[in-house]
Structure formats: C-alpha cells, structure tokens
Amino acid sequence: MKSVRKAVHSVWAYNLYERDLWVSSQCRQLPAGSKVLDVGAGSCPYRNLLQHCEYKTQDFQQLTSSQLRDGCYGKIDYVCDASSIPVEDDSFDVIICTEVIEHIIEPIKVIEEFSRILKPGGKVLLSAPLGSGIHQEPHHYYGGFTPFWYKSILERNGFKEIRVEENRGSYAFFSQESIRFVASTKPWKLKTNIISRLLWLPIWIALSPILAIAIPIISRILDKYDAEKKFTVGYHVVAQKGFK
Q1: Hey, what long-range contacts does 177-180 have (CB within 8 A, 24 or more apart)?
Q2: Which helix (H) or strand (E) holds 36?
Q3: Rounded Cα gap, residues 112 and 108, in angstroms
Q4: TM spans, by residue (predicted)?
Q5: Cα separation of 122 and 240, whole Å?
Q6: Which residues pair with 234 in a beta bridge?
Q7: Which residue from 20, 72, 82, 114 has the highest number of Cβ atoms inside 10 Å of its Cβ?
C-alpha cells in the first residue's frame, strides 16, 4: 500500500511530494548537532527529519487553520517578521525556507536577513513557485521567482555555490493545471443557474477521466523529455554563505 500511495502522490500531488523528497534528502546530509532554522515553518512538517539537529522555527502566525498544511501551527520559537528575526549574527548552520517568499512583501530583505544570521559556510535551502494561483490570501504577493532571480539576489548577498533545480518540468506543470481545471469546474460548484450546470454535467463527466487521469499519467511519462522546463511549477535552491 505504501508504494501505491507513493505512486499516486508522485503523479497527482507531485509538487509537495517532490519537495518533501528534496527536503528529506538535504536533511539527511546535515551533521548531527547542526543549528537549523525553519523560516515560515507553519505546521513544522520537517521537525521529525531534524531530530538529530538543534531545530528552531519562525513564523508570523497569521494564517487560518484551513491555510496550513496540517491544519494548525506547530511549536514556533520566533513569532516575527522573516526579515527581522531576533537572533544574533552568524547564529545558524542551515536555514530552511520552503514556499514562503512569495508570501512576503519584500523578499529581498528576507534574503539579506538569511545572510546575516547564517554562519559563514552555512547553507540556505529555499523553494518557491515559478507560477502559482493565489493562495493563503491575503498574504500572497508574487506569482513566482525565476532561476535568474535566485542567482542574482543570492550572489548580491554573499552566497556562492548556488544550485537551482526544477521541481519537474513543463508537462508535469500542465498536468497539475489539468487536474485543477477538473476540480474547479465541478458542475455543482459553478456559480451559475441550474440549467447551465445540467448542460455542463455530461461534458464534465466525459472530460474528467482524460484531464484528471490520462493527462497526468502521460505527463509523468513524458516529463523527462522536456529539455527546456520553462513552465516548471517551481525550484529547489541550495546556496552556501561565503566566508569573509
């Protein structure tokens, strides 16, 4: 059953699935006792991965339970703005910040803060969308960030060895939007009259298996052949703070 769930998630919930795999892989590489700060930690889904580290969390705690991954906040050590965390310079070995900077009005200031509180040689693990619909409103300010943004802003703030990897490719992105179309056009949820909903129902039933099942599976197979990946759902970024 576990392998079946993995297969299902890798096709129909690949964005979160791939991100969790990436974070897990990065966490396993951290030496025991590393001081780690999870910025925008929310429900703290990565706490168990970092039991071998000194794990601290930050969040501004202004989202509702329905906007949080696990329905409630985890234990947050620093309730504050991500651009002004009350710790000394060079405090942490690693900063984790996943799917957060699009929700911050001035994300460059957050990168500056990461540079301040990371130790020389420390790493930031960062992810954010390239393109996304509005979510966690009203705290959503940017549609996405490109590899050029990461490299430029991180370099300006003293980071080096910057690795930017796509979270799958364009075909996977298209499959995600295909699933979103089916979910958002359910006849009983459309804000229209009963006749329009009844007319749309058989069309929706006919299209759903193609859009929500066939296209995601085909996209999963074809995605490895996408060389350009210009419509990827987002990026996973690792960068090291330089030594002065």
Answers
A1: 178/211, 178/212, 178/215, 178/216, 178/219, 179/12, 179/211, 179/212, 179/216, 180/133
A2: strand 35-39
A3: 6
A4: 198-218
A5: 6
A6: 129
A7: 114
Looking at the fold, whether 6 and 67 belong to one and the same domain comes out as yes
Among residues 236, 112, 67, the alpha carbon closest in space to that of 163 is found at 236
Cα 197 to its chain centre, rounded Å, is 35
Question: Whole domain around residue 185: which residue ranges?
Answer: 171-223
Task: Give the 3-state DSSP-derived string for 167-180, with helices as H, strands as E and coil as C.
Answer: CCCHHHHHHHHHHH
Q: What is the pLDDT of residues 84-137, one digit of tens each?
A: 999 999 999 999 999 999 999 999 999 999 999 999 999 999 999 998 989 999
Output the pTM of the full model: 0.93
DSSP string for residues in 190-221: SSS-HHHHHHHHHHHHHHHHIIIIIHHHHHHH
